Amino acid sequence: MEETSKSNNLTLDVNEKPKLLQWIILAFQHVFAMFGATVLVPILVNQGIAAAGFEGEVLSIAVALVTAGIGTLIYILCTKAKSPVFLGSSFAFISPIIAAYIAGASSGNTSDGIAAAMTGILVVGLVYIIVSFIIRLIGTNWINKLLPPVVIGPMIMIIGLGLASSAVNNIGIGAGVETIEWKGVIAALVTFLTTAIIMVRGKGFIKIIPFLIGIIVGYIVSIALGLVDFAPIADAAWFQLPNFKIPFASYKPNLMIALTMAPIALVTMAEHIGDHTALSAIIGKDLLKNPGLQNTLLGDGVATVVAGILGGPANTTYGENTSVVGMTKIASVWVIGLAAIFAIILGFLGKFTALVQTIPSAVLGGISLLLYGFIAVNGLKVLIQNQVDFRKNKNIIVASSMLVLGLGGAIITFKTSGSMTVPFSGMSLAAVAGILLNLLLPNEKEDNDTQNSSKEFVTEKKNNLDENNLVELNHPLIEHKLGILRSKNTGTKEFRELAEEIGSFLCYKAMEDANLENTEIETPICKMKTKKLNEDKYAFVPILRAGMGMLDGVINVIPNAKIGHIGMYRDDTNDHKPVNYFFKVPKNIESKEVILLDPMLATGGSAIDAIDLLKEKGVKKIKFLCIIAAPEGLKKVQEKHPDVKIYCAHIDDHLNEDAYIVPGLGDAGDRIYGTK
């Protein structure tokens, strides 16, 4: 990846300062993007505490805004202003904060509940910091072994489903409700439908802030129905110091209960890595290498420690703000920094935070109904997209055990030397159980019958493909070169040269149906009529970045073909739909035959998204060239785009649970560019 975001058509580099008016407008876009989710966390935590029979405020909206802003500035400092990330309140810790508070306050003293919750947030930040130093010493490979998709997926599902009853109760239709308050149900329904419609049909910036718009519309409807009490707004001061909760001043830290929140930090690291990977694709810089995962985690961890010291919720990287960068094409850290300052200022505006606190529970219920389900489904998508194989009993045991422990109310109580009891329950218990089971359970041995069954399964998948629009090169030279290409001992230079060569072979095959035009030439002996290819009718479009490794090979075949480029990433906040961060194609692309290039066709997602983009531009004839392909990905592309002919050097066996092609050749991009 390039070291400057300008290479990906972004208007501003990460360190370039925009003009004043543009700077302010862009900063407010980031504030609006993060606002809805950030203020929801303290509201929902306080409601959960109240539902358990405790009075008082645990988290403050004002403090959440201030700590989000301060945390973002800390992150910028720790990453040396190389990463345009905004930090805000994390939904993953809603239930753990509530559980820690209840455990602490069971002594009869509410300050003990605050001590447990706030110390827990401090511990979470410290875990991030410790992991950042471990990565600095030994690298990142151990993270994937500790937190594979079979652990991450169920954990995310538990986070969402564990809060489901809260959403239903806020609407007023939960178990035990004798009389339904229809005004509240109407407000919740309007909020829900508004948010859902914007998520499905919204465009541009509107699509990035569905929860904020849903709350605003629901609030307006609630006013019309007489559900809003404006008295707190009138009583609030214009300028008001947030209700900070400082250790030893407001409470005495409680480390024993706080430790039960620590395992959740391991799971939210996956979210941290995912958001930085998506942002890396947008800005054309690998943020996990520069400034490096060790520094991004350090920034997130220190920010969360400071949040805990001030009485705010744990921080996390915000996908909403990543989407703003993708939409505006501006990745300036100056913009993120100004947005952080605006968030801090909002936290000191008493009437503003009082206004937010008057949002009716029914409106929050309507939002939560969608939000919690959205979180749970994202966990399911982790399992699907990573092709977790539930034919394997080990995966079934890990996932099912986590779901039952996390949702079934399992609890293990430890007694301290005094009278205090420390409950270890819910998400924390499920996370630890999942990690340990995955590490300790042996992998299953396949006997001959199982191996034969697996081979039959692979053969069946290949037989289900449409052979009319699929060409696999069966040639001794291809087989020879693929063998060298696959070897882990093959160096970068040789790998790159082989990828180019195979690209040339694929292009020769793909051009078998080319139409030639009649022309007349003169040889050294005489004039003659011959055939000529109109090279201007063709365009090569590699999918960044691995597709570039095949480009020189196909250009050798058609030197005068036009060149385009496609770069994209998947937006995890929006149903994993493709977000185009770079799309540059020749003029009149709709009149050309486009040959799309990507060395590997694994799940088929990138290929489908790229073809969609080309068809939106009016391209009628597309061919897809890849070196190796998995049957699963081929099937998906053929189902979505049956008119696109696919040429591959070899169809491999299958995808493993990490969505890698087996036997495969590793990460083509890393091997072409020597980045691993």
Please characterize this protein's 3D structure:
The protein is α/β, with parallel strands linked by helices. The protein is 56% helix and 12% strand. The protein has 26 helices and 17 strands. Strands 5, 8, 9, 12, 13, 14 and 15 form a 7-stranded parallel β-sheet that branches. Strands 1-2 form a two-stranded antiparallel ribbon. Helix 1 (20-51) packs across helix 3 and helix 2 (61-78) runs antiparallel to helix 13 (288-310). 48% of the residues are buried.
Which characteristics define this entry?
676 residues; 7-stranded parallel β-sheet; two-stranded antiparallel sheet; 26 helices; 17 strands
Q: Terminal Cα separation, in Å?
A: 13 Å
Poorly predicted runs: 1-8, 448-460
- Beta percentage is 5-15%
Report Rg.
28 Å
Largest sheet: 7 strands, parallel
State mean pLDDT (0 to 100 scale).
Answer: 83
- Count of alpha/pi helices: 26
Instruction: Please report the total strand number as a whole number.
Output: 17
Shape designation: elongated
Helical proportion, percent range: 55-70%
Helical/strand content category: alpha/beta
